[in-house]
From TrEMBL, chains A, B:
PTM section of the record: Transiently phosphorylated on a His residue during the reaction cycle. Phosphorylation strongly increases the affinity for substrates and increases the rate of nicotinate D-ribonucleotide production. Dephosphorylation regenerates the low-affinity form of the enzyme, leading to product release.
Catalytic function, reaction form: 5-phospho-alpha-D-ribose 1-diphosphate + nicotinate + ATP + H2O = nicotinate beta-D-ribonucleotide + ADP + phosphate + diphosphate
Protein name: Nicotinate phosphoribosyltransferase
Pathway linked to the protein: Cofactor biosynthesis; NAD(+) biosynthesis; nicotinate D-ribonucleotide from nicotinate: step 1/1
Amino acid sequence: MNDKAIPNDRSTALLTDKYELTMLQAALRDGSANRQVTCEVFGRRLPNERRYGVVAGTERVLRAVEDFRFSANQLAEMDFLDDKTKEYLRHYRFSGQIDGYREGELYFPNSPILTVRGTFGECLVLETVILSIMNADSAVASAASRMVTAADGRPIIEMGSRRTHEYAAVTSARAAYLAGFDATSNLEAGYCYGIPVSGTAAHSWTLAHTNPDGTPNEEAAFRSQIDTLGVDTTLLVDTYDITKGVETAVKVGGPKLGGVRIDSGDLGAVTRRVRKKLDDLGNHNTNIVVSSDLDEFAIAGLRGDPVDAYGVGTSVVTGSGAPTAGMVYKVVEVDGIPVAKRSSSKQSVGGAKRALRTYRSSGVAVEEIVYPFEAAAPDTGQLDTREMTIPLMRDGHIVDGLPDLHASREYLAKARKTLPWEGLALSRDEAAVPTRMVGFKK
Amino acid sequence: MNDKAIPNDRSTALLTDKYELTMLQAALRDGSANRQVTCEVFGRRLPNERRYGVVAGTERVLRAVEDFRFSANQLAEMDFLDDKTKEYLRHYRFSGQIDGYREGELYFPNSPILTVRGTFGECLVLETVILSIMNADSAVASAASRMVTAADGRPIIEMGSRRTHEYAAVTSARAAYLAGFDATSNLEAGYCYGIPVSGTAAHSWTLAHTNPDGTPNEEAAFRSQIDTLGVDTTLLVDTYDITKGVETAVKVGGPKLGGVRIDSGDLGAVTRRVRKKLDDLGNHNTNIVVSSDLDEFAIAGLRGDPVDAYGVGTSVVTGSGAPTAGMVYKVVEVDGIPVAKRSSSKQSVGGAKRALRTYRSSGVAVEEIVYPFEAAAPDTGQLDTREMTIPLMRDGHIVDGLPDLHASREYLAKARKTLPWEGLALSRDEAAVPTRMVGFKK
């Protein structure tokens, strides 16, 4: 029995598809490894006809690129490579440039999210790890952002660790926090990223206080939880009868009880009943926390009900119907020549790109203009503009002063306010902001 | 900038929801931490009304439980815990028993997939990491197994790393291989789990051979690939015009060319055209590999077409519409007393459980019988039976002689043959094998 999936040395170099290394071997042999290329990360469409996407994972990508080194042990394993290729990989260190959208930025179909420039050899081998991170993190952040809007100012706690890969759980907590969630249940995410960690109690807690004769003892469970965690804790009241659970909670916790959590049933009807019960008992300041398979639609549906906080699990860590953002990484320029796949579907526009976004004086976004990377910014008349494409990596080093997770979270909260009103709708439709390509040859 | 999501010391102990440790603190204080409990991993239903699920992740779970230790650094971070709890965690080592379904076994709604026995304290804290692994791995394996059936003996290569979290990519490759996929593109999965790794080439390869004047040079790309990787390589022929791509591939590779890959278009029509072209050129032994958003339905739809191998990405790593298996971990017994949540939805049956499956003499499964863990096996008349529940961990140690990944893969291939014919249907319906609870009080 052996599980080496989490390597001790943290190298990201084998989080890679084999064909990248066999192509590298051929490219070293025929010389194309030294051609200067530009690779672009973009999404052809937004999943499920959503109105916008959220760029997430950028910081993790830059870190993974810096960490992309092959250890002697890893190279020794790869008997399918010739010595020249192994020697190249032994010294591999990305030395190129990365520009792109900052983390927490909104994106739309064909937004040039990352522009990676360097030799074909050095850019080629980064495809998988860059896409894995961007696709996973952006999927979660894009779904989470819709939930934050649906919650309309009420706090949301991410508690989906148990529904996704154990390490995806950690980065999902990060992506949800970026999108505006208030806390996570995941300890590792708190430890790694400084995200607030919170939690209540499980049904197992109440069940573990069953009397020796087999009768329930919810009161003992509640009393012990309050004794240890204080009266501002949140008690889970739906293990047996919810109404009795609330009565017992108030009996034990008194008027200062922090909250009750409800994890089953018709949450709208139940929260109204529980709110009335709490108020009748004088517990006007005791909060109601709800969980139980909530997604953005269920959250929106509870907007008129007395909910003080949401706990969201499965739907956020699985991207609420879109578990991957569907971004691709394509060579768009070779030695200054725009290139693109041409056959049938999946066509794209060749050439290195950058983008700006225009805004009305009210601050509402009008359109995104994508133009050649080396060209001057197009004239946008009297509209305000913001450059979307910023330097992220220079000569293989992460540029100084990039915003951290907390700053990116604040940035996104403001960026969401630039969407036209239909941009926050949960229904399916076109992207809220159109993307226009300017200055490219067809 | 800091990404510590992949810890150097590989401890799994913080892949945990905070409430598990706060409940532990209260349980240590009130004594309930010492009560003997049984926790059960099961799924209330199969996602998307599938006919069966595949148990995957068991070996990884057992390993994670063995590795579940708290380092001094981790404990120092947890300022929300009292000294007694930190002391308990400092010495934490699971010392209980785990029984359950072997990896690669089929499961159905309410199958008692894992039965974890120990003190409440030691079982409580394992909830998140056990569920994360089982839910992620079983989701992928369950989807992959349907694809293997749909492929009807043709090989499938897993190539979805870029569409999921960078470490989920590695374990997804493992789960897909367990389910019968033949290879993966992911190098780390090959390195960690001994899975065959394969690959072809990307469009970037062809595009990187664009002439200095901007004209395409597919021939140079193909020639270089064959020079380096040999004539049995697979050439990607759909960067420009597919028919010309095939002609160029045969011109360069000759009659012994290994294969061509097609990654776009109407794959049925295109493969028929390409097969005819290859045959007309005398390349009867050149294989056709297809990729491009394939799922089990698309694979089945190509059954009558001249496809020699499938490359499957997004759909398999995202569980083809069911990115999590939806398993839960519930306390079902406390000091020998069966317990269960009783309110409204999400009811379950209390009591520690084990299961056997019955079969006709033809080998076809009839039903799954779930019965009390300590009871004698129920009489199943003249039907053949197989005990589903086997010892996996004893006193905190993984039992000797558990099957490895390759053995589990073979086991699953045989287990699939025990399904009634409708069990292999891709349409939505009830589980193929009914589960019956025997000997439990309601």
